[in-house]
Amino acid sequence: MIRAGVVGATGYAGAELVRILAGHSGVDLTVVTSRQYSGKPFTSVFPSMKGLVDLTCEAFDNESVCARTDVVFMALPHKLPMAFVPGLLKQGKKVVDLSADFRFSNPAAYEAVYQPHTAKDLLATSVYGLCEVFKEKIQQADLIGNPGCYPTSVILPLYPLIKNGFIDPASIIADCKSGVSGAGRSLSLTALYCEVSESFKAYKVGGHRHQPEMNEILSLAAKMPVNITFVPHLLPMSRGMESTIYANLNKDVSHQDVHDCLAAFYSDCPFIRITDNGRPPDTAHVRGTNFCDIGFVLDTRNNRIILMSVIDNLVKGASGQAVQNMNLMMGLDESAGLNAVPFPI
Amino acid sequence: MIRAGVVGATGYAGAELVRILAGHSGVDLTVVTSRQYSGKPFTSVFPSMKGLVDLTCEAFDNESVCARTDVVFMALPHKLPMAFVPGLLKQGKKVVDLSADFRFSNPAAYEAVYQPHTAKDLLATSVYGLCEVFKEKIQQADLIGNPGCYPTSVILPLYPLIKNGFIDPASIIADCKSGVSGAGRSLSLTALYCEVSESFKAYKVGGHRHQPEMNEILSLAAKMPVNITFVPHLLPMSRGMESTIYANLNKDVSHQDVHDCLAAFYSDCPFIRITDNGRPPDTAHVRGTNFCDIGFVLDTRNNRIILMSVIDNLVKGASGQAVQNMNLMMGLDESAGLNAVPFPI
Amino acid sequence: MIRAGVVGATGYAGAELVRILAGHSGVDLTVVTSRQYSGKPFTSVFPSMKGLVDLTCEAFDNESVCARTDVVFMALPHKLPMAFVPGLLKQGKKVVDLSADFRFSNPAAYEAVYQPHTAKDLLATSVYGLCEVFKEKIQQADLIGNPGCYPTSVILPLYPLIKNGFIDPASIIADCKSGVSGAGRSLSLTALYCEVSESFKAYKVGGHRHQPEMNEILSLAAKMPVNITFVPHLLPMSRGMESTIYANLNKDVSHQDVHDCLAAFYSDCPFIRITDNGRPPDTAHVRGTNFCDIGFVLDTRNNRIILMSVIDNLVKGASGQAVQNMNLMMGLDESAGLNAVPFPI
Amino acid sequence: MIRAGVVGATGYAGAELVRILAGHSGVDLTVVTSRQYSGKPFTSVFPSMKGLVDLTCEAFDNESVCARTDVVFMALPHKLPMAFVPGLLKQGKKVVDLSADFRFSNPAAYEAVYQPHTAKDLLATSVYGLCEVFKEKIQQADLIGNPGCYPTSVILPLYPLIKNGFIDPASIIADCKSGVSGAGRSLSLTALYCEVSESFKAYKVGGHRHQPEMNEILSLAAKMPVNITFVPHLLPMSRGMESTIYANLNKDVSHQDVHDCLAAFYSDCPFIRITDNGRPPDTAHVRGTNFCDIGFVLDTRNNRIILMSVIDNLVKGASGQAVQNMNLMMGLDESAGLNAVPFPI
Predict the structure, then answer these.
(1) pTM above 0.95, yes or no
(2) In terms of domains, do B24 and B102 share one?
């Protein structure tokens, strides 16, 4: 049994990690930390898990955490992981960090949108944990920068098509929509029920920090600098993310070509589902799961492709992918603990 | 492996049965029937389960279903099961019927609110499948009348208190609230998004067919005829049911007495959770699970008790309890297939 | 034109007052105050009203406010109005206070659930602003304690029946459900979208501060002390409140008797609508309006009545009733500014 | 007083027309027709308006309707208006048709996506009722083809920019999101609460019938054939539509240039609001109103503009704009009946 700890267990991503790990037959969840709820039973904060999770929240302490874990999940806001992760690695722990701190290979790209990086040396060895794209590297890694939710939903449908030269990387527009849980459990006016319900709007247009993250990975696929247009929107729902992505087709590409390209690239990937006949995927169909469903339609009159992907922002967009990364790092089955049959509604 | 079939698999309760059975390690789901979608892959109707359920909907045929199943779940509107169940029993199948057809021991009570009963003889041996109350009988049964959602949520908190003479059965008032999925997947104006959203109202006041069902079981507990006041309401949400129940206390009963009574009665019941300190339970905490959470507060100035229970109407209120019944009938662990860790939100 | 000011204009009740007053043809809205947004245009906080409201938020200053108003609405949390209102009255202003500070005639009842009262002398002359019940007094008043949302929804259906001796006041149980906007615009975990959506639960069972307020007024109707059982619940919606109220009928009372009693008592009341044939009222039908719709059903087997009322908690439960009070105080038509045709959905 | 009739008054658009017209001081609403509810009081179908609308639904009869109206609103599915409108015009009635039947000047464009047109001759004189763009023509018209909701939200932000040559018409991509009420009040699986809640998806990608409508009008602005890429999505909310529109900038255009262009074009338009500093507009801010709020951001690195518009699909996207058209046709103030102050939430 692998012993796992969750640092920052009482945010939404942290609690979702607890849910998944508590149901993972290869893992023994031994530590949950929370500054705010230190000393309280985890289930006093999340009563849904009463009877199934029997842990008390504790304050983070490097030695204490290391003594009881083999792998540590960091579910903290960016900046904090930079301070904690080096200590964990020194004790030989494997780490999956859900913040942005270890997603970038280029520190300048990180510092341009976050803040000065205090553990730059680790960026050389940390691996971007997009499992379907970087599986081999992940299997060898000690430190994973778990991808952002928007980048996961945007890169997965695009990567194979860019790599195969099907689309013009300069033409990419990603119109993305996220449920409110992406904002986390901290208090903010914009996350209040009365502000979200019956409301839909774009936000941070031209200034969202997930954009450079996408650009870095898509540039790898294109082997040239890519700078997409990215507009995030806030949906009146808890969980779910949809990305509708537009790009110019580079050459005569048929619907079948695109299907074959995606199907081949993701042939061994248990969590990628290409929809039948390009049917637009629905966030409801991946709710609570680690799936990324992808559909597409060709706008032949305009020589454009319309790609659509859906994920659960808390699962494939955060905690599910984190566990998938752990599975790969620890030599477990990639989908262990992530196989729950989805709800029909 | 137990071979199971779901008759009426494309309604919400049927699809929820498919979800649970597909994830049940002791069950091989072999047959799904649907008149409307006969010939179509089940996942063309419920794409969320693509990759996890590989069955084609078929029309119901007694011989064909019996040849491939050990147990059959009937998820059809009442009246149809009366016609199909005798044939299944004749072939030696165990049957869990989710309709009202086999819930009543008294045919007259059934006929007063439904229609003439065409298989009355079976009512003598069918068992009311409220697992926590009638476990021994269920273990011996061939035919289960799976309880209605409202009765499940109302009887569970009341039964031990009535049996122990803590409350006056003539004083019971049940104010119940249900999510929309209780209305099923058939088309109706009242189930449209625009009619439900930002709407809350009572319905069928004084005339809901679950009332005689509650009365029959509560009368057993009281050993006298009980006729409660029951008002169902429709909530603007998909899944979840809350019942707030009022009754006069019969004698000097303390908070601790009530807690002890409930805790003792349900001591071996994995799906009953008494909340800490009487905290009101939240439907969100049982969403997607087979739990029934119970809380209570004493209104000492008025010598009344306020009982509150929550269930997921599609799980403990329908398909989850149906699988729990099957587990008991087939000698499996009572909670097999029903152990998924609940979502934090 | 009556000059009106709103103190605390950027909470939900305050902003709703601004909405109603800005569309009121007999009123000139001259002042909006907000500590938090002082100096900012009101429409920078509530952009929906851009082009229709052209006022800048200012800090409260007694002299400055008095110089530009005839009537002042206080939309602040309780305790603050006690400090501000005496100064306004001294300047001869009429005041409608939406907090609890001036609702009680008995200071001890207030202090038992709020805090020490620092303007007790005013309680002798302040009037409880339940317009349909205390119209004459309101017309003479200088200071109105605007009723709480729950008390409005509970007292309106009960008052005539208690007064006429139709029901036993000792038997009253009020099971009430409120939309989230009742919690206001301040930040709290329980008001977050992800906590509210797909959730329903009771709260503050046996301890909500609206209960003594109801008791005081219902005792007036009964001419004896009344202590009801009251359980509030939180609905996954923004606006709307439903109360289902149970009571024992005192004597042989027919459906027609109840209808006639309510219809007679509210014959001159433009905002009370008795539903046809007792049909359960729907919160969606009063959304954004000052209506209180009332329905009822007799549970003759148990000799009980089931009363159901719906209001918009922000309108008839707060700001709409406040304007109705102002209309009465200032000699305007009772429904001025409150006549918008409701939305069909 | 202008006498108005609503044909098809019990769909959502029809009922919304009734709401607006019942509150319009220059209009006497005299006729409401409904095949389904003929003979029933309108408020038995929409109880929210009880006490404010006192009309009985009747079957459509040309003579009877004409005898009691000056202007007739057609709120029927396309195809039916073609049959009814000629008769109304013959009697000298003004007609605003909310279907697609009279939106196209080119019958072939209509027939390519709807069905054979049986009143083609009227297309020569019918006017496309996008009020802010075609005001003069509308003022002279007898028959208005009221614009579709998507075209309204897409054309309004684009028209001035295309006309001024700011953007490349070949590069336009419109990513649009609509609330469920756009699907109307008829029964369909996709409009059920349980299917919509916590769901978001694209639909009819590349095949929505509003696309040729947009193309026809945008081609007018561009003076060349325009064929945009258009993807509609379904939002889990009742009312509201957001369009995020991408286009390549044709030349060096600054943020101020775009603002000035839009502000100048819409200087006399009471229902167009340009947001401050390009802030993304929010559907919640126009809910229940006839406003179209427009925001925009320049993606200078990609030389693209991102335009965002929001409307209430039932008001500016249907019934509100229909009344605005009537106001213009009848010589009333353009905003008469459409001035309600919006809700803060």
Answers:
(1) yes
(2) yes
Instruction: Indicate the pairing of strand B272-274 with strand B201-202.
Output: unpaired
The half-sphere exposure of A35 on its side-chain side, counting CA atoms within 13 A, is 4
CA distance D23 to chain B (A): 23
Q: What is the DSSP letter of B244?
A: E
The verdict on C71 and C174 lying in the same domain is no
Instruction: CATH number of the domain at A172, please.
Output: 3.30.360.10
Phi, psi angles (nearest 5°) of residue A320: -65, -45
State whether D118 and D221 are in the same domain: no
**Total structural domains within chain C:** 2
Closest C-alpha to A5, from A127, A92, A93, A122: A93
Strands A71-74 and A2-7: parallel
- In this structure, is residue D132 part of a structural domain? no
Question: In 3-state terms, what secondary structure has residue A120?
Answer: helix
Residues from chain A that touch B12, judged by Cβ atoms under 8 A, are 344-345
A284/A157 same-domain check: yes
Q: What are phi and psi of B276, to 5 degrees?
A: -70, 135
Identify all chain D residues contacting A238, using CB atoms and an 8 Å cutoff.
198
Residue type at C11? G
**C96 and C181 housed in the same domain:** no
Q: Do B118 and B199 fall into the same domain?
A: no
Does any CB of chain B come closer than 8 Å to the CB of residue D193? Answer: yes
A58 vs A5: CA distance, rounded Å:
11
Owner of token pair 């978001």: D200
Active site residue A149: yes
Residues D182, D290 within the same domain: yes
SS3 string, chain D, reads CEEEEEECCCCHHHHHHHHHHHCCCCEEEEEEECCCCCCCEHHHHCHHHCCCCCCECECCCHHHHHHCCCEEEECCCCCHHHHHHHHHHHCCCEEEECCCCCCCCCHHHHHHHCCCCCCHHHHHCCEECCCCCCHHHHHHCCEEECCCHHHHHHHHHHHHHHHCCCECHHHCEEEEEECHHHHCCCCCHHHEHHHHCCCCEECCCCCCCHHHHHHHHHHHHHCCCCCCEEEEEECCCCCCEEEEEEEEECCCCCHHHHHHHHHHHCCCCCCEEECHHHCCCEHHHHCCCCCEEEEEEEEHHHCEEEEEEEECCCHHHHHHHHHHHHHHHHCCCCCCCCCCCCCCC
Structural domain contains residue A283: yes
Domain that includes residue C216, residue range: 149-312
D177/D149 Cα distance (integer angstroms): 11
Q: CA D267 to CA C235: how far, in whole Å?
A: 43
Report chain D residues whose CB lies below 8 A from the CB of B185: 189, 192, 194
Task: Assess if residue A306 is contained within a domain.
Answer: yes
Residue A341 within any structural domain of the chain:
no
pLDDT tens over chain A, length 345 residues: 999 999 999 999 999 999 999 999 999 999 999 999 999 999 999 999 999 999 999 999 999 999 999 999 999 999 999 999 999 999 999 999 999 999 999 999 999 999 999 999 999 999 999 999 999 999 999 999 999 999 999 999 999 999 999 999 999 999 999 999 999 999 999 999 999 999 999 999 988 999 999 999 999 999 999 999 999 999 999 999 999 999 999 978 999 999 999 999 999 999 999 999 989 999 999 999 999 999 999 999 999 999 999 999 999 999 999 999 999 999 999 999 999 999 999
**CB spacing of B177 vs C173 below 8 angstroms:** no
Q: A195 with A133: CB under 8 angstroms?
A: no
For residue D188, the chain B residue with the least C-alpha distance is: B187
Report how far apart, in Å, the C-alpha atoms of A264 and of each of A163, A273, A297 are: 12, 12, 18
Structure tokens, C148: 């709480």
The CATH number given to whatever domain includes residue D20 is 3.40.50.720
Site of tokens 């518009």: D309
- In this structure, are D155 and D273 located in the same domain? yes
